[in-house]
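Two records follow; treat each independently.
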Amino acid sequence: MQTIEGSELAAKYLSCLESGETPTFAAWLEFASVNGAADWKRPLLLLTSQRLIISKEKTFGKPKADFAITWPEVSAVSGGPWHGTYDP
């Protein structure tokens, strides 16, 4: 799968998917803040058929879903300008 920036998403980042989940969109964000907490620098935003996932960039170890929420639970998402193009 390609990220919105055009690079191929490494398979290790898909390790946080649950069985039956299909990734549909991926982007490296400048930062993310979840529920008003401190910013996470350069996390991966991964949208799937079932959830919105944010994974912090890790120097060592396997990526994980540092924040995940199912679509019925999402009440608001906000963000700044997107750079690049997305063509599914």
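The next record belongs to a different protein.
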Amino acid sequence: MEKRDIISSSMENMLLIYKDVGEIAKAIEQRMSSLGYKAYGDAAFTWESSTAWYGYESWLYRWFARIYYKENNLKSVVGYCIHLGGYFPEDVDSLNQYGLRLPVLIMSSLDFEKDIKEIYRPTVYNLLWDAGWEDGQEVEGKIANAKIDRGDIAAKASSLAVDLLELKGKDDIENVVIKTLVALYEKKPIDTSNPKLLPIKQEVGDQ
């Protein structure tokens, strides 16, 4: 394939991928809003990208995240992070060793010691990015629990994962994503028998 065709095909494929991700985000946003959850921050959905001419390694959007909370509990949030890929090899290796193949959607609750409105918002999103494949996390069934930190901000995280390619429509969004997010936030039992919820390995290197 000629370079011109490779560029054209690659751009078309990325637009299709972003369209699919956008449809998933729209469905989740509408449903969470209807359940009384507020999005943490503005409409931002893409993170850690560069617009500088010299920062080409970070031009491409690789991950997407959204966090929700309720006004009556500002020390807890719930959200999801879509990891598309294109990460550093060591990050890809870590995800693989925890049994998580890209692209993957990880749903997590984060509990803080202080109100989230007192925390730098990118820090909260970076913690969401970390959740689900943190060194030393403990796994019960398919739920990964860990204490994670960025600088002087720490959170208790509980996470579940789903293969992004297995989310086929609104029923999956409702049954796999929405119900899981709500249960994580409300600290209710989660039915992990759904085969679309992925098992997360206990420790890096486990077979």
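Discussion point: The longest helix spans residues 3-34. How would you locate this feature using only the token line?
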